[in-house]
Design a protein that fits this description.
heterotrimer, A mainly alpha (325), B alpha/beta (432), C mainly alpha (302), A: 325 residues, MetI-like fold, two-stranded antiparallel sheet, globular, C: mainly alpha, 16 helices, 73% helix, 0% strand
Amino acid sequence: MTVITGDATATPVASVAPPAPSAPGGLRRESAWRRRDRRWGYVFIGPQVIGMALFVLLPFVASLVLAFASWDGLTELTWVGFENFTAQMQDELLLRSIGNTLLIALITVPIGLGLAVVIAVALEKLKTRTLYLILFFAPVVTSTVAVAMIWQQMFRVDGVLSETIAKVFGIAPPDWLGDPSLALLAVCIVSIWSSLGLNVIIFLAGLQNISPSVIEAARIDGAGAWRLFRSIRMPLLSPIIFFSSIVAFISSLQTFDTVFVLTADAGPDNATRTIVYHIYDLGFGRFEFGPASAASVILLVLTLVITAIQFGAQKKFVHYEDDAA
Amino acid sequence: MPRANSKMRRLLAVGAASAVMIGLAACSGGGGASDEHTVVWSTWGTPEELTRFEEFNDEFMKRHPDITVELQPVASYSDYHSKLLAQLTSNTAPDVFYIGDDKIGQFVDAKVLAPLTKLMESDASQTHPDDFFPGLFGAAEQDGEIFAAPNDSNPDVLWYDKQALAAAGITEDPAALAEDGEWTTDKYLEMNDKLAAAGLTGSMFWNYWATHYSWISSQGGTAYDDSGAFVGNDDATTVDAVDTLGRYFQDGTFVVADSMPEGAGADSVFVTHKAGFFSQGRYTIGTVESAGEQDSYDIVRWPTPDGQAAPTGVATSYLAINGKTKAKDAAFTFWTEFLSAEGQVFRLQGGGNAVPSIKGADEVVLEDGYPAHAQTFLDMRDIGFEDYAAEAVVPGLSTDVSDLFLKLYEGKADAQGTLDAVAGLVADKTGE
Amino acid sequence: MTAADIETTLVGRPDLERPSSPRAGVARRRAGSTALHVGLVVAGIAMVFPFAWMLITSFKTLPQLLQDPRSFWPAPWTIDNYVEAWNAVPFGQAYLNSIYICVLAVAGTLLTASMAGYAFARIRFRGSRVIFIVFLATQMIPKQVTLIPFYLLMAQFGWVDSHLSLIVPAMLVNPFAVFLMRQFVLSLPKELEEAALVDGAGRWRTFWSIILPNLKPGLGALSIIVALDVWNSFLFPLVLLNSPDLFTVPLLLSSFRGQFGSINYGLVMAASALATIPMLIAFVIGQRRILNSMAASGLGGR
């Protein structure tokens, strides 16, 4: 990326700078001013661009390169071509990781967003909503580590949650964290719980941005609560829901903290092994930096694919205000 | 305009200055010693252990006023080696450090450790190679050169809960049977069956080399031969033994401790009297003491077909010196005093968590008289073995083998198939 | 959404309350609203219960936890867990670490992001569009993809096990913040700058004296978003920091469970409480600001 191409000596110019970049003016005057202005542009974006190049793009490219190598951090690096990828794609653990991650995302995001919409709509009608907002948002400001540690104890087979379920449904207390089929669900529950508040807030703000006149008009036309919701609020909220969905999916695909703290060793029978956990394990647990980089490339591809799918779905489900009603 | 340009220059200057300031201000952090009279060392441990280490540091510095010693603890074992690796990669590693037995082979292979044999045989050494119990070196020794020494050891004994056994209607005491030479495999399995019938867990094992190899060895089988090849799959006794082991896991009488949820794991189950046997080392003393009912627990060796003692696994961790340390002499002085009999006694006395790895320090195990049959620790250590060098040397091989055994325990493979797979894997990875 | 909107968006806008309709469907609406209320209460309890449970458990003694795990209230109450937790690991130090890292990261981000945002919004320079798109695109790259080489890079700089590796990148890299700032600047009327430029003020002066003051609400929002993100970050500090003295609060808490997690979970809950309660108190105090900021972050993405 270009850095400041500063030219220290200024070219002498007229004492008055032209009013604004877009105003028409003498070509020569503009270009001198413009040149200096352009440099300011680079100066201003400089820090972020340097940071981006150094701390994001450089490691990213290095990661792509490392994916084709075999290295354990101590001994020499050897090139192995596509072997990491082929090995990874056949590796049971990675496939399991991908499956788990997708499952977590597909469960967490729709349910989480759905609940958030419902709660936001409900809260909108309430005058004294501050208390609720505090309650819903408290999990969001709490660190994922603490959240996972608390839930880890809540999920004890001899704990309140399991005992209550056993009593209410008349079954054996579920061993959330020890049973492979339940562990994943446990992770989803924690994820939904901790991000619900954030989406509620965002949707609530979105709902409040719907101009009251639209609602009034619909009411006068005789629309009931459900109709209002389905045909007015949802469509107008859909751009925000869409944006939140993108963010939520990307975040869900990157689940790590929760799994790392909640379940030891990626859960019983690797039931909660996510892609990022797998990357961390390969890289920092087994010192296999090549395969770890390959796995992270796979994660990137997965993210792009899922985001692209959502953008594709955008046309069908998301209404923007400039669309004809 | 000139003014605008000098603004730009000023801005750049400010930017550069603040970068420098931040650089100076925020510099903090550990890392290796940069002078030859400071020894930085790292290990993992519980707060009690770490307190004891700090006390050792203080005592050492009193004896050697010219050396400064700094401890860099890492709280959990599972994070420890990745940190160490990271430090070695970035050349900020401590001068002296612990290495676990599942990683020692890798570090030796990577040639980052200082060779120690000569130093150990020198006059300055308090830890002659012969002072240690030979079975404990394992992969710390390569081609006759020693790269690390065991800092203490932990034979995997079978802890048992007298209360749980009583609840299952078992009247005989395993340790008493062992003393009479009657602690047979049949008796052991019978007790486990009774525990299962009473709704309790029979035995809990951690899934690593010491579990499957102790079992194979105690049942009279052979895993590796002297040339370092895996031959278990060709030996009928071994296959039989593994088959029994697999069956007991599959029906839930034996449980893999690693699969239990963290926070409500094997320790919890054991102290709430829900399991009969638990294969662990001496550090279990801490666990049962914190729950307050230590008299309910005792230890016994692994059962054998004929009731006599047989060699079983001893877990060890090692102390090594950084190959690139700048404080060679100070580091070795610290290292040798740490591992000497006096050093080990100092560390382990008063309810310590391990068994000495060097001769002449055994009194610490027996002094408190707990558990009742504490002598078993020493007996098992004397004839015990570390993980087979052939396996330990290859990074990750031991874990992969354990994963294969896990499949057996989960019923996804049978005994012969598992052993064949192990043989294949070992041949593959060691053949290079 | 403009910067000014944030002040009054969310909490405390009774003027946006729906006027209740005087006639038709009142009964149905009331029944519906009771159901909603009940649902909200249930959801609210679900949100708060784990915290309450954490507190209650932290006051229980170990014997009670082992022998009577189903009992709800502590019997007896004890603060031993808190004392032990506080003494076992350096919570005070961790709080200091987390706080000063956050402060530096926020300050740096505010400055660099608003600078970049202003440039992208108002200054025409070659490559502006392309670079901006690259910024947006990099947001898609999962951070974990860069973890290992980033770590190696930090090792090269000698920043492993140093707070620098957390602070400097945080200060300089935040595409989302740049995007947000650009949105806010775009919403400011052009006349503001034009006046200044006509009077001969340079870009820097304009930025500093005109734009920034008008961005205050946006900056406030951004600082809260960044602070939360930095405070709670886990994976990168986990990999980059070794010495417990340098740990941030989440990292310290995680290391705690490694040592103590096996049977005394009352102790673990006490440690969790020590790590979370101060944050929650800070949140309650500043909740209006915080909630409005987070709302802005979501809407700003439109």
